[in-house]
Sequence to fold (304 residues):
Amino acid sequence: MSAEPARRRPRPLLPYLLIAPSLLALLVVLAYPLVDMVTLAFQDMTRKELFSGAAPPWAGLGQFRTILGDGFFWTVVARTTLFTGVCVTLTMSCGLLVALLMRGTSSWVRAVIAGVLVAVWAMPVMVAAAVFRWLFDADYGLVNWLLSRLPGVDLARHNWFTDPWQGFAVITAVVVWGALPFAAISLHAALAQIPPELEEAAVIDGARPSQVFRYVTFPAVKPVFVMVTTLMAIWDFGVFNQIWLMRGGQPEREYYLLGVYSFIESFAVNRYSTGAAIALVTVVLLLAGAVLYLRQMLRLGEAE
Fold:
């Protein structure tokens, strides 16, 4: 008796129907603005077209030739890259130290640290910027008062933002302070998944604490470390709120990063297409970072 050929079961449509609203929302919220920004970057939008509703003339690659041929644009790119590197390095270093501290403390101390981190993470950027502006205020700042108590130090009425290096140090502190909780909690969760037997075996074999961390602990948390580092790089590369708020809505050219530069060109100088072109270049640079992230994750997956 011959067996009947197996019939193909029809694929259920319910999963696709359930995910359809989310996909539609993503298309409306993300895809349409992105397409509109790309289109604007190849046009020459002025206030005349903006208020009249007329179609702006096409400029082709003119906007990109303008910004790529501008030395100040490359200065902003280099400044943004340096700022991102410093912020990410400090955030991940401090986050790893806090995660290791949480791992080695008692449960109630760990709970207190976690509560403080969550409170910091929940604080709005506007409130954090206001707190740091008061801490570093030239007239009434707590930092100036404390440092002036040191022998030979006089920082009375010292303005930290007169020098861009000092100003960016303050802004970096704001960014790192706000990003530290996510890094620390994520790394602590990864550390909690390491079996204690692995580290105990390394200690029994004579490994020093630094060797245990280098050859046992860190390799186990490396996938999470790479993921969090990449996310931090993407977030810090597009920093806008902290600079805008710390400079009172009027950042000087020395404080321009790519996000601030794009906003100023679009809404302060009214060169809308130039601002869109800068934003598009920023997106391309971020996509390059995302590709590097995916390659790192694939390599880690193959190694495992």
About this structure: The mean pLDDT is 87. Residues 227 and 294 are 9 Å apart (CA to CA). The first helix runs from residue 14 to 41.
